[in-house]
């Protein structure tokens, strides 16, 4: 039996989970479209502005005002959505995506059993931030001798910084949210321009509308601002064009490059 939601909003029945302080906001319409596509909530072109937030007894229209980042690499997002009455709450993008389905109902049953949207957000955060389990079994002497020293961990700035880098190639990367390949730009010789420059090496970013305006070619040097996180570039699936096949690992991602200058 289909579940019918009344369209009358009752804010008193909604359990809000507001953001903790400041959160990331969209730079412009292109940035909004790219993030909506990344979360699997629509295509980048003509992205929808309103989404259904479904509860046990009602459904309410919300808009996405921004997002929070969490996890050791800041690669995970929690959406910040606004109701028509101005209230804000946080929700995982995959859960909001499920709410758009006409068959949404099993999730509501799960809420009755204790899996509320707040619980889902908390569980997702815990999984992303949970430390790796360290084995209590001591290493054998031979294993200790064979173990090589790991290189020093690169300390990444948390705020936006200035970069220089060179375009190495374009590649296709698998996006598990929308289940298709996204085009990305792979950069080499990436350096964070601080008082003491930090050599990053290889990094990647989305080949967004903003980037495409510069008609980039391999070998060109760029300067730009952005935020860097530790996130390896996933390889594309079923890529036939050799020009878009990823060449080697790329361990860092640069989010939302801006103030781009091509040299």
Short key terms for the protein model shown above:
9 strands, alpha+beta, OB fold (Dihydrolipoamide Acetyltransferase, E2P), 263 residues, disordered N terminus, 2 domains, 4-stranded antiparallel sheet, 5-stranded mixed β-barrel
Task: Explain the overall architecture.
- Mean pLDDT is 81; it is low at 1-8 and 130-135.
- 18% of the residues lie in helices and 33% in strands.
- It is globular, with a radius of gyration of 21 Å.
- It has 6 helices and 9 strands; from the N terminus they run H-E-E-E-E-H-H-H-H-E-E-E-H-E-E.
- The protein is α+β, with helices and mostly antiparallel strands and 263 residues long.
- The protein has helices at 29-38, 93-99, 106-112, 117-129, 141-146, 209-212, and strands at residues 51-54, 59-70, 76-83, 88-91, 161-175, 180-192, 198-206, 221-230, 252-262.
- The strands form 2 sheets. The protein has a 5-stranded mixed beta barrel. The protein has a 4-stranded antiparallel beta sheet with strand order 1-2-3-4.
- It folds into 2 domains: 11-129, no CATH class; 161-262, OB fold (Dihydrolipoamide Acetyltransferase, E2P) (Beta Barrel), CATH 2.40.50.
- Strand 1 (51-54) and strand 2 form a beta hairpin.
What is the overall pLDDT average? 81
Strand order of the largest sheet: 5-6-7-9-8
In total, the number of strands is: 9
Q: What is the number of helices?
A: 6
Q: Can you tell me the overall shape?
A: globular
Task: Give me the Rg, rounded.
Answer: 21 Å
Low-pLDDT stretches are 1-8, 130-135
Structural class from helices and strands? alpha+beta
Distance linking N and C termini: 62 Å
The proportion of residues in beta strands is: 25-35%
Biased composition (Polar residues): 113-127
Region (Disordered): 108-139
């Amino acid at each position: 039996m289909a579940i019918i939601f009344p369209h009358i909003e009752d804010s008193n029945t909604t359990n809000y989970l507001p953001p903790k302080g400041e959160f990331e906001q969209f730079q412009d319409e292109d940035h909004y479209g790219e993030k909506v596509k990344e979360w699997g909530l629509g295509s980048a072109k003509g992205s929808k502005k309103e989404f259904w937030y479904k509860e046990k007894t009602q459904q309410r229209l919300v808009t996405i005002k921004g997002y929070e980042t969490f996890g050791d690499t800041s690669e995970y997002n929690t959406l910040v959505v606004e109701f028509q009455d101005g209230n804000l709450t946080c929700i995982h993008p995959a859960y909001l995506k499920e709410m758009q389905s006409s068959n949404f109902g099993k999730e509501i049953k799960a809420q009755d059993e204790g899996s509320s949207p707040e619980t889902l957000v908390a569980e997702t955060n815990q999984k992303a931030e949970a430390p790796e389990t360290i084995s209590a079994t001591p290493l054998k002497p031979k294993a200790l001798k064979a173990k090589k020293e790991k290189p020093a961990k690169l300390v990444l700035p948390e705020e936006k910084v200035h970069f220089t880098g060179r375009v190495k190639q374009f590649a296709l990367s698998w996006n598990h949210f929308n289940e298709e390949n996204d085009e990305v730009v792979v950069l080499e010789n990436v350096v964070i321009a601080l008082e003491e420059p930090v050599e990053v090496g290889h990094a990647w970013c989305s080949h967004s509308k903003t980037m495409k305006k510069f008609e980039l070619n391999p070998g060109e040097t760029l300067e730009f601002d952005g935020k860097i996180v530790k996130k390896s570039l996933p390889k594309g699936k079923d890529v036939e064009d050799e020009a878009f096949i990823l060449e080697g690992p790329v361990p860092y991602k640069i989010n939302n490059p801006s103030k781009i200058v091509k040299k």
